[in-house]
Amino acid sequence: MNPGFVTSTSLSEVVGQALEISLRGTDELLPQDEWVRKLQRSEATGAPLRIKLGLDPTAPDIHIGHTVVLNKMRQLQDLGHTVIFLIGDFTTTIGDPSGRNSTRPPLTREQIEANAQTYYKQASLVLDPSKTEIRYNSEWSDPLGARGMIQLAAKYTVARMMERDDFSKRFKAGQSISVHEFLYPLMQGYDSVALKSDLELGGTDQKFNLLVGRHLQQEYGQEPQCILTMPLLEGLDGVEKMSKSKNNYIGISEAPNTMFAKVLSISDTLMWRWYTLLSFRSLAEIAALKAEVEAGRNPKDAKVALAKEITARFHSAAAAEAAEQDFINRSKGGVPDEIPEVALGGAPLGIAQLLKQAGLAPSTSEGNRLIDGGGVRVDSAVVSDKALKLPAGTYVVQVGKRKFAKVTLS
User: Where is this motif: 'KMSKS' region (predicted)?
Assistant: First the structure.
């Protein structure tokens, strides 16, 4: 919890609990006092608050990094509030410029529709489908038309738009900014007007867009939404944010055995951050588990528990148990008692380079050929991705049936 947040002892038990849940793992909740008043009004009237999350279907699958905000939605949904899962089929045609240093190419309508088909199905593995309102922003954005778009644009100034960090940096660097990119935060903000949102969630990179929603609601005479930003989850490497392009992700539709093994591959340090952002265990339970590890319990026990929880969420408890057993069986299978130990630097290190430096392959090209042939295993898991980069840690690397090395990478 951000140390700048202060809670009041005068809050009712219901509101106090809701505030605590709202703040768990949160980067910012703005303005917190307004959110408390909304919670108090909801308790007094029995009317649920409207909580919005918009996702643009820019790719066909969701990874567990996306579920950080979905988890928060589920926690608020379980308190009885209305959750709106907004699929940005209109805004995707513009392309969100957040965090980019060049214009994002828009997707075609066919690509958007194909991706959107899987989005909600996958999100439903976290959200309660029976209590989720599904909306598409083309519903109100398409009818807006040219006249409506111009009227909307009149409600926000260029000066305020240029306060946005990525626009400001690109402008100063002499990089192009297309006029249509200014329309993205306006259209995302207009979604909040159309949905009469009380709270909008997003990653920390979405803060500017969420604040535009607050401004536009005031322009349209509505009570402005509060905004809640969640941290961007670090991927398997523990360095970069989880991303398919960086190949440090766990897709929520991946096979249970793969998902389980990938969670076990993260560092002991990263594990606790993942517990806070991905686990449904209480903060007290996590703190107790961390204290046990600090007192001498094997951190792998905690990591196995996290891997089972995540695997069970997206598959089943039985699949998680089977994945654990599969991992145990594979970790025992065929590894000699005595194997060479190698210490390497340069983490995160590409798998083909690691094979070469560890003496398991004569060259990186031969290493890539071995990967293509399914002959490379790391901690008994077959490596299929030649772009894999291993973070710092210790691994049992196997090539074929007879070559082994215990590689400590720093």
Answer: 241-245
**92-128: buried (b, 16+ CB within 10 Å) or exposed (e) per residue?**
bbbbbbbeeeeebeebeeebbeebbeebbebbeebbe
Give me the phi and psi of 47, to 5 degrees please: -85, 125
Binding-site sequence positions for ATP: 244
**Binding site: residue ranges?**
244
- The DSSP bridge partners found for residue 229 are 28, 202
DSSP lists the bridge partners of residue 203 as: 230
Q: Report the chain's C-alpha Rg in angstroms.
A: 24
pLDDT tens over the chain, length 410 residues? 444 444 455 899 999 999 999 999 999 999 999 999 999 999 999 999 999 999 888 777 789 998 999 999 999 999 999 999 999 889 887 776 665 555 556 678 888 888 887 888 888 889 998 889 989 999 999 999 999 999 999 999 999 889 888 888 889 999 998 888 899 899 999 999 999 999 999 999 899 999 999 999 999 999 999 999 999 999 998 989 998 778 899 999 888 988 999 999 999 999 999 999 999 998 899 999 999 999 999 999 999 999 999 999 999 999 999 989 878 866 766 565 567 889 999 899 999 999 999 999 989 988 998 988 888 988 878 888 889 999 888 888 988 866 888 899 88
Domains of the chain, CATH where assigned: 13-230 (3.40.50.620), 254-332 (1.10.240), 336-410 (3.10.290.10)
What single-letter amino acid sits at 136?
Y
By CB neighbour count within 10 A (0-12 exposed, 13-18 middle, 19+ buried), where does 402 fall?
exposed
* Dihedrals phi, psi of 30, to nearest 5 degrees: -125, 135
Residue 387 burial (CB count, 10 A): 12
